[in-house]
Amino acid sequence: MAGLTLSPEIRGQFSAIARVRWQLFVNSLRTIRGRMEVVARGFMFLGFGMGAIVGSIGLGATAWYFVSSGRVDWLSVLLWPVFLFWQLFPVMASAFTEKVDSSNLLRFPLTFPSYFLIRIAYGSLDPSTAMGSLWLLGMAIGIAWASPALFLTAAPVLLLFAIFNILLARMLFTWVERWLAQRRTREILGIFFLFMVIGVQFIGPLVRHFGNRSQPAVSHFVVQALPIERLLPTGLVAQTIAHSLRGDNAFALGSFALLCAYTLAVLWLLNLRLRAQYLGENLSEAVARTTAPATKQQIRLGWNIPGVPGPVSAVLEKEIHYLSRSGPTLFTLVMPLVVLLIFRFSPGKSDSAGGLLGHASDLAFPIGAAYTLLILTNLVFNSFGADAGGIQFYFVSPVRFREILMGKNLTHALVLAAEMAFVWAGASLMYRPPPWDILLATVTGVFFALVVNLTAGNLLSVYTPKKVDLAALGRQRASQVTALVSLGIQAAVLGLCALAILVARAYHHIWLAAIIFVALAAIALVVYFLVLDRIDAIVLQRREAMITELCRA
Amino acid sequence: MSTSAAIAAPAISTEHLTRRFGDLVAVQDVNLRVAPGQFFGFLGPNGAGKSTTIKMLTGLLAPSSGRMQILGIDLTQDSVKVKRQIGVVPEGMALFGRLTGSEYLNFVGRMYGLDRTTAAKRTAELLDFMQLVDQPRALVTDYSHGMQKKLALAAAVIHGPKILFLDEPFEGVDAIASNTLKSMLQNMIARGATIFLTSHVLEIVERLCSHVAIIHRGKLVAQGSLEELRAGVEAQAAAALTAAGAPYEIDSSAPAPGEKLTLEQIFLRIVGGTRRADQELSWLG
């Protein structure tokens, strides 16, 4: 990284980039949608701000306690969550992460060091960086409070740990970005992420499962793992502080040097990726040419669904093709069964054989169904997001948006129905088949919630569409406004469902809830069709905004 | 196509078509008439209002005022009836990236009301004609730009439209693909279809189009057959010569003696696009 001094030219470039980003923000406020997005971001900022403050206080107090009580080595227990959040959050929730289009930057005469610095600086205010830094600051204050002399060691080592995290997050992101750039690697990465997400869900139950038993094998594993942990960055931070407190300055320096080595290794890996980008790496995917002579292709007939008009069938077929090619979406379909498995293997209150739901196994199906409904809902709130430029076709085709949305809604309803059947089978196998009254109440409740979601989803898909890539993981699936509104709608639907169940329980007849849900669903259906009848007029009013958003590069 | 026939039953006609974006009047009072069977080129400098006009004519954009009739049907009154009879290749090509070429064409065919068998049959023929058969499993998103253009054109004609609207169909297309597109368009014209295209490649427009309209700063400044436009420009030049007593040779776009004005020369004369030869940028050597 020689030549990293800020020459007037580089300073000029930095100030130009900062200025253009500010102008982009100001320009975004010209539209109502832009202003609403800022308000929605404000709410997100408040949430993250609270997390940062509460986390800082909690970590600071715990660090103070560890140092005061002579358990300095235990600091690494606090550093692990910070480290994991810092690294996983940008990848799992990249909607909140700044993305840089290298091709835009590289058109300009940037030197590699300034390109490198810009890539590091971008996103320095990401939630993970801001919150991670504040948490470490809280820890530094907690340590200094307990032992003021230790601050001189804790401050630089925690600062280095922060730098390590920033570089590691950037490094991971650039490599993930590289793998996401190509469809094949993207899908392999998708599978990896799914297993990671599923794996994370199992950590809690497994810890509880093994934690409740004093198994010699577990203790043996922990004893063997501890020395290794001390050689990892989090352990090294704790070791540096602990050795310094004990006056073992040589060991403290050694730990610090090893942490420096980790940081340099990450810097080197990041440098590799950024240099490849700087040298004009092109990851575009071209279709391989075939040498065989072209023969006339046999075209499969489109789907024919009895009683469903041709265009609606065509939309349904197209939607199913899209879903079947979206790794992340397919993976979400597995999640309800995973949740049931987690409940099955979580120890219950009295360690019953049925797991967490051992004493209430009748609830397995309702819980699985509710979870299915929640995770599939985000698809209907941004129905045109994955169509991107294809939205123009809908506008020039002789098919009304009423039919297009019916095709999309029918797809969603069929996927939900199929998923519910899987959940029912899973719940029946893992626990026992739900009683008929609970089954009826659940199915009718889900139907009511589905109709409400489709109605609201159709409107939000038109009013606040957002272009999305269904093939990419961790990308934002809807606009911030849609996310907030859908949250409110889910809360209202769940509230109504809870009320219906309470009424039914008061009369000791769960099937009464089914009657209430049917009545609510009938009302929701009337509203659904009223909205559907008006949707073409609404779409015509919104067409320019829709095309602009969905066709943007 | 005689002038009287064109007036009697235009394929495309607009009356006082206007579109405003805030204070900007992108298209102002445009009165277009395109006769059935014409290969019509719609030209204009960047930002003149070409794309805005074609978007309004195809239902992608609402006009601020004025009327549009396609095949005698008011677009705002019965847009579905109009859309059944037109094919469109818009600026963004309107493709669905995560379908294969055949799935996309099949889908489009069925959206235009073709039965399953016809849609599949025409899909196979179009893929063959457009030389897109050797990538049956490739997704549209993985196609090259030229392949996407060919696919977009195939989708626009799968239902046999009477009018075809093409926004910059030759942009970014190589000579081979361009040749395929041109031969298909000429076949359509031979069978009586009307084609309305915008393009910056004036040589192609000159070779393909029988009639041309030029829009400049949102206003229609010329409309007619190439010969009519040429005659108009030459008459204007002759009038200027008589008035000033000097030839217009100061203009570099003047034709050599005995040669006809090319479409490019006509275009530059009409929109006044010639730049002073002595005009330079101070910092460029």
Overall description:
The complex is a heterodimer of chains A (553) and B (285). Chain A is mainly α and 553 residues long. In chain A, 74% of the residues lie in helices and 0% in strands. In chain A, helix 7 packs antiparallel against helix 10 (233-246). The mean pLDDT of chain A is 82. Chain B is of the alpha/beta class. In chain B, 38% of the residues lie in helices and 21% in strands. In chain B, strands 7-8-9-4-10-11 form a six-stranded mixed sheet, sandwiched between helices. In chain B, strand 10 and strand 11 (219-225) form a beta hairpin. The longest helix of chain B has 19 residues, at 226-244. Residues 1-6 of chain B have low confidence and may be disordered.
What is the strand and helix layout of this fold?
The complex is a heterodimer of chains A (553) and B (285).
Chain A: H1 8-28, H2 32-68, H3 75-92, H4 102-106, H5 112-121, H6 127-146, H7 151-180, H8 183-211, H9 216-230, H10 233-246, H11 249-278, H12 310-324, H13 327-345, H14 364-380, H15 391-396, H16 401-430, H17 436-463, H18 480-506, H19 511-550
Chain B: H1 3-8, E1 12-21, E2 24-30, E3 33-34, E4 39-43, H2 50-57, E5 65-70, E6 73-74, H3 79-84, E7 86-89, H4 101-111, H5 116-129, H6 145-157, E8 163-167, H7 175-190, E9 194-198, H8 202-208, E10 211-216, E11 219-225, H9 226-244, H10 263-271
Helix pairs in contact in B: 4-5, 4-6, 9-10
